[in-house]
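Cross-check.
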Amino acid sequence: MKLQLFSPAKINVFLSVLGSREDGFHNLLSATCPLDFGDRLELELLEEKGQDELACEQDNVPTDHTNLCLRAVQLFREAFPFAQRVRVRLCKGIPMGGGMGGGSGNGAAVLWGLDKLLGNPLGKGRLMDLAATLGSDCPLFLEGGATVIRGRGEIVCPLPEKACSKLAGREVFLLLPGIPVPTAWAYGRFRKIGKEAYDNQVAMESRLEEFTAGDGQLEGILYNNFEQVVFGKYIALRVFKEKVAGMCRGATLLSGSGSTLFVMSPDQGFDEGTEAVLTKAGRDAFGKDFGLVKAKAAPFKAAELFSPAQALDLGT
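Predicted model, tokenized:
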């Protein structure tokens, strides 16, 4: 019993951190959009006894129970005990520490896939509960498509169709500096700075509401207040963002807590040669570790993660 799963990257087109919570998390307000770029997983149920296992072709990806894939398996077992052991094979495209939800999306995909393989014993509602336990970013990947998230990330609803239409078909350049930014560190910086680092909830809700109603332009909603805390330490990211903004058409923004920067194309698309210009600038700034991915926003992507079976090449 085997499934092939696609685990999309996401970008935050709007991300506001509103304040810390008593449970140790932060209250967020965000609009996210999946991309047609991401990771691939193979999920297999095996009848023989043994430990659940995770294999990945990248040496820097942990394959023990610190990985959300295996943590997702354990959570599912606690909710619905089953006898088979699980093998997960992971092909990474999304960089670690890049702010595009790679690990969270992988964990959500495993929850979804196990439910499919075992005959849907839990269903979406229970899976959403498990995803919220697994990680703050996990529920949005189970919703599918572009979303609005609130709370610590567990309150998820689809982005309205009018707003999605402003994202549909937009090209996105993902600028990957090769510098991981730990999410826990970034949130810790908010706490250290204090109230002045947090946004006003009323003002941010009003700003987002205009966009979700379909009245505002996409360029007017692009915002991320992680930039103020991340750029204070990672100065090279701030300098590079400023440089990119002067080099090409399209808005540039940090995704999540970083380190990925993305450039969203204007309505008429990018100028010819933009990819080459951005690649040279990135390599000049960050050397051989810099990467660039050209993707498209996929705001109407369904929650269905199953894809036609194909062998994963993990170099083994």
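The two ends are 20 Å apart (CA to CA). The chain has a mean pLDDT of 91. Passed to J.P. for a second look.
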